[in-house]
Amino acid sequence: DERLVDNDQVDLLEKTLGRRRSTLVHRLEYLRAPGLMIAVAITVMILLSLRWAIPWAGDAAARLLPRSAETHIGASAMESLDSLGLQPTQLPVATRQAIQAVFDDLAAQADVPGGSLRLVFRLGGKTLGANALALPGGLVIVTDELVALAETPDDLAGVLAHEIGHVQHRHGLRRLGRLAGLSAVAVLVTGDISSLSHDIGLLGAGLMDLSYSRDFEREADASAVALLRKANRDPTLLAVMLQRLSERADKPPGTHGWQSRHPSTEERIQSIREGR
Fold first, then answer.
1. Lowest-confidence region among 6-20, 38-52, 108-122, 241-255
2. Could you read off the pLDDT of 141-153 as tens digits, one per residue?
3. Within 10 A of 163 (CB to CB), how many other CB atoms are there?
């Protein structure tokens, strides 16, 4: 009898996979066309929301939020970073003043509300290392370790222009909005937030956020090139600093892969040199 053979096969599958995993097979046996169509429709809607709806909603929220609120968010983020391990800068006053002059020159040419940009120096240590970071509201952090990689203050113009690009496009605030949307979708899809499936859902949300961040980095690079030209500075200054950072990194160039929050160094340098 064919039904007995089918039952034997199901029993064998349950023995091989275990009762918990084989439960899914039993559920699929009773899935009819209407249910399958609904499942497919829900999946498509979720994928569309991840690709278009969530970024749109996050960006819309960023546009609606007052600048004063964004500034408050940035100040809170600065306090958190300081509490996590950033230390006061050890740079000489003359060095800081020279870098501040470069920053002010770029800020005067940037498409950002006057007075919103502010430069601060910190010893990055294990928290940031050689890095620069733009926070919501216009606060730009430059670490002592990054300054050490520059031969002159002018060498930092490309990095500073890149961070100003993040502020101009409100990337910090937009990323917060998108992260909130991704987290909401992960909880909605997986249901029980204490389950393993929820952890997997959050991982998926995190990977999607990496692609959002890479898009933001490309946009900030393009803005930096335009700003440097507007300020009569060489756009390749950014490419030079990126190369120095890549050579300093523990991993060899080109191994960032899909886990990186930035496009590959080679891709970024090529785009900058080509003026994109």
1. 6-20
2. 999 999 999 999 9
3. 26
Helix (H) or strand (E) holding 88: strand 87-88
Q: Which of 72, 59, 51 is nearest to 173 (CA)?
A: 59
Phi, psi dihedral angles at 132 (to 5 degrees): -135, 150
Q: Write out pLDDT tens, residues 85-98.
A: 899 999 999 999 99
Strands 139-143 and 87-88: unpaired
Cross-strand bridge partners of residue 88: 122
CB 134 within 8 A of CB 116: no
Question: Using CB atoms within 10 A of its CB, is residue 32 exposed (0-12), middle (13-18) or buried (19+)?
Answer: exposed
Q: Which residue has the tokens 């956020």?
A: 209
SS3 of residue 119 by DSSP: strand
pLDDT above 50 (res 263): yes
What SS3 state is found at 170?
A: coil
- Give me 95's structure tokens: 């060095």
Secondary structure of residue 86 in the 3-state scheme: coil
Confidence at residue 90, expressed as pLDDT on a 0 to 100 scale: 97
C-alpha count within 13 angstroms, C-beta hemisphere, residue 98: 13
pLDDT category of residue 190 using cuts at 50, 70 and 90? low
CA 93 vs CA 99, 167, 214: distances in Å: 10, 26, 35
Q: How far apart are CA 269 and CA 275, in angstroms?
A: 10
Token code pair at residue 111? 């498409």
